[in-house]
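Methods, example record. To illustrate the input and output format used throughout this study, we show the complete record for Transmembrane emp24 domain-containing protein 7. The sequence lines were provided to the predictor; the line carrying structure tokens was produced by it.
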Amino acid sequence: MLLRGYGTAGPGGWLTLLLVACAAWASKITFELPDNAKQCFYEEIVQGTKCTLEFQVITGGHYDVDCRLEGPDGSVLYKEMKKQYDSFTFTASRNRTYKFCFSNEFSTFTHKTVYFDFQVGEDPPLFPTENRATALTQMESACVSINEALKSVIDYQTHFRLREAQGRSRAEDLNTRVAYWSIGEAIILFVASIGQVFLLKSFFSDKRTTTTRVAS
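The corresponding predicted structure is encoded as:
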């Protein structure tokens, strides 16, 4: 399944991105969204298919982005402004191309890193039930349970990685601000110390007064 994306970076030019889905029915992508930019993706969906769009801003500014999902006829299925993360589930109403866009046009100088997971339909069963006369065996049932548990583990790992990346970004940003603040304080203390030295020196410097006598 091919995701076709395009982006606008304002007057600076065009950003084009062609992405291939990571799995047959799911796309998990992390991309950079520059300031004053908009990135859109397209997906061919069959009518009646249940889809889920989940996104989260990992780094940049206030960790927010605009998201918009449109149907084949241009109708707006989902629209949120300046969201840090969200999830939306819908069912396709027709066999056409659906578009979802992420916008950072409200930001003038802050780049964002955005992660999204777009799931189309459901995963095929581990053991197809077609042409089966009997129910699943105990071993097959255990395999299905393990498979579902592993899917949950993968989802949890993904969310924990996103939280870790977001926390690391905030910690690095805070560390940079503290470093700049410390440098500023050091410069102020140095200037103040030099000023005090010259001020005290002026108090103890010899002042010679000249007296002029006027002859009568």
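Annotations derived from this record:
Strands lie at 2-8, 14-20, 26-33, 38-45, 50-59, 65-70, 76-83, 85-91, 96-103, 112-120.
Residues 9-24 have pLDDT under 50 and may be disordered.
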